[in-house]
Amino acid sequence: MTERNVRIHVPALTRVEGEGSLRLHIAQGEIEELALDIFEPPRYFEKFLEGRDHAEVIDTVARICGICPVAYQMSAAQALEHAFGIDPGPWARAMRRVFYCGEWLQSHALHIHLLAAPDFLGFDSVVGMAEQYPDEVRRGLRLQGLGNTLIRLLGARSVHPVGACVGGFHRAPTPAEVDEMLAALRAGLEDAVALLRWAASLDVPDDHQTFTSVSLRHATDYPLAEGRIVSDRGLDIDCGDYERHFREEHRPQSTALFALLDDEPYLVGPLARLNLNFDRLPETTRRLVDATGVRFPSDNMFHSLLARAIEIHIAVVEAIRLLERYQAPDSPQVAVSPRAGVGIGATEAPRGLLWHRYAFDGNGIVRSARIVPPTSQNQARIEVDLRRSLLALGLDRDDADLRLRAETVIRNYDPCISCATHFLSLSVERR
Amino acid sequence: MIRVIGLGAPFGDDRAGWRVIDALRDQAPAAVDLVALDRPGATLINWFDGVSALYIVDAVNDGGPAGRVLTLTADDILAIPAHISSHQLNLPSTLRLARSLRALPPSLTVVGITIADLAQSSPAVEAGIRQAADIVAQALCEKIGACNALP
Q: Looking at the DSSP assignment, which residues form a beta bridge with residue B70?
């Protein structure tokens, strides 16, 4: 290996949500410094919520992310209902799964086609990729549009939807609206099947590594809006016990927190979900995955794109299943009576586990809030993966190759940096 | 098919594109398809299929006087530099993607209205909305030859 001194600084990562950068310093053939810097201004949502009425929480947290507002709303709704001792009932539970399917569809379709796939096909952006793969890109745009339509069915609009509330939804779709949605979903199923097969055929690096997968696990179904927190190292806890096993720490280069499980990095997101819940796939999805020849659980992080494509198929199949049995309810929400207490909620955002805890006083006013988004949980894992992947690629590769592989590794996690940033306690050492 | 798409968001002046669509419901020939979209990002391209002439009306934040109406061609928009952030593709990036997909309609006009305030509607922008609706209605009637639909 040529021994040389390499400094790579990617000042603004492209094709990720939000603003971050990467610093890599190689000296004498060794990685001297490697850091994913997150410098997007900190978000103060947890503090914004203090002193606000419980009824404001769901629409406020939706503003944390333009891509996954449903996830924030669903974790918050679950936490508030937990605090107030409310069961939203089977209709709201089923519709929350449908609502969430819409978000997975639009978010995963956006990431696969606009952000990730160009890396694996040798293009610097989707604009270049579209000239050679127009049918694939058009298919992705149709699936993204289908997801947006599904979010609108229950949320009234697809960007920062306003349909969800504590206890259920503000409005129930009419049977005619549901029939129209079902027709669109059935028409989209062919696209979802074709996407899954195409994603499995992509030539991704054959790079195996050891990591801990963490996700929700539901009693009977693929996890979306509720479940226990499990890992492939034997963890199996109620989401109320999260803080006993997971902790977050500040690191100076980042306004996001680094989350650790028993002091070790871990993975959340589509690949972790699939690794832990392959036996919960709908039968039609499982048969399609079996036919690809790719086996799960997988220890190749680059199977994340395929995992997203598989989850797009799950979302379409699951939304059809739930809407086919749709019946308009007497009321789309149950009554809410606030009380003092603490509530915890955890759901599966497109990028992984999203955990919320709120404390309320007797008038239903927020006294404290804690939100742990998936990207801060993946951040430590991303740095481990970067180090590992660059060593596997070979540090003697030229700068352009190293930079592309590093960016590919980061984008593979679909990091949402805007969601992940928190207020940072900073200690400054001066000499 | 001839289609007019009003782009917008439910905040103050950013509704300008939607307001033009509302105004055109009384002014445009019946054969024209009128659509109001809420921040569609790249999925805007899904609305280009089968369209021979497309008008896109959107709010612009260009530092110019509020209410100014700009009429731009596809080439004007395609010349705007790419935007780094990727929560959504912006309009120039979306049109570049559509060009790569060979999905751009044969005729494309973008009508922009310079806005001032995202918290409330500005009087100057109201005038711009009326002017933009008149410009699009006039262009439609010339294209279709159905000017009797105009007031």
A: B112
